[in-house]
Amino acid sequence: MKPEYEKIIEPAERSFTAKVVNRSSRPLLSQAWHYHPELEICFTLKSSGRRFVGNQIADYQVGDLVMMGTNLPHGFTTDVYCSQIVVQMTENFLGRDFLNTPETRPIRTLFQRAGQGLSFHGNTQKKSSKLLREILKHEGMTKLRYLLELLQLLAESEEVSSICSLEYAMDLNVEDLGRIKVVYDHVMENFREEVSIPEMAAQLNISEAAFYKFIKKHTKKTYTQIINEFRINHAGKLLMSTDKSITEICFESGFNNISYFNRKFKQLMTLTPDGFRKRYK
């Protein structure tokens, strides 16, 4: 199963699209994962869940601001209502020579860096939120002016981190990414259960040995690491939102050994489960 190609229809009177996208819950990656030749800026107005960009998984919440480059697969999964501002444009949305001028060199560099996916934070999020709202509010030259101001802000920001490695971004393969989507969907649905490597390998129609190599090559993680990330994230939510005991949460999250759970939780969250609950509940 491959990431879905999404065709972006741009109105004839505009060189880029800017809109608010509202969705009900979308829990499966198979419902969300897609790619397109347009660059995309996405700002979350309301929602929380998991953000998939290339081979990386992260939690996202209100205020999340990311930029994805050309044909970089991405998707947001959530169990709740989601509202996001989405801006999409081609690399040459203002003509082939626009980014070849000295004045626009920072934006050209931004577009190149977006091939790895970019996540922005701090004041850049706040300033971008205001500019995005102005883009939505206006039309014509004023709309374009605010977009250029936003691109300048993102290009000059130091409050940014790359999402995928450069090695990964240069080695994108749509067929392999489709297989990764199958793996992530399976884990999301079954992380509380016992892991079945033969079952997963059979779904991809490869041997168990090939499956291990495939996961390591394309995610830079082991299959166990991926499952533990899902389990620990789930445990963190339970620690913050319920009064269940840590032992109950351990088993409810798919672990069958409390010592192993405590060790893995601290590795990923840098806090013990009890310390995490005291800090965030």
Task: Give an overview in words.
With 281 residues, the protein is of the alpha+beta class. The chain has two domains: 4-168, Jelly Rolls, CATH 2.60.120.10; 191-280, Orthogonal Bundle (Arc Repressor Mutant, subunit A). The protein has helices at 29-32, 105-113, 123-137, 140-156, 166-169, 174-190, 197-204, 208-219, 223-241, 246-252, 258-269, 273-280, and strands at 4-5, 17-23, 34-35, 39-46, 49-53, 56-60, 65-68, 74-77, 82-89, 118-120, 160-162. Strands 2-9-4-7-10-11 form a six-stranded antiparallel beta sheet, covered by helices on one side. A three-stranded antiparallel beta sheet has the order 6-5-8. A two-stranded parallel sheet has the order 1-3. Pfam families: HTH_18.
